[in-house]
Amino acid sequence: MFVDLYYPGRPLRPGEIVFPDDYQLPGAARAASFVTANLGWAVEESGSAGDRHHWAVLRTGAGPGTRPLGYLAGF
User: Fold this and answer.
1) What is the pTM of this model?
2) Which domain holds residue 42?
3) DSSP label of 52
């Protein structure tokens, strides 16, 4: 899921929306956590945690991440 967010998100302009599904899966939630912690993305909305098929709406950050590689938050 990380690859599904990170690489397709690179050509997006600041403030655009990404709509990942299967957010209930640990890998999807961790990938979203990475892009929000390191790339300035924000979780705009998400489905109910009790839903069988969880989803989220992520908004891209104001620009590319500027933190040095050694300062990136881990998964």
Assistant:
1) 0.71
2) 13-62
3) S
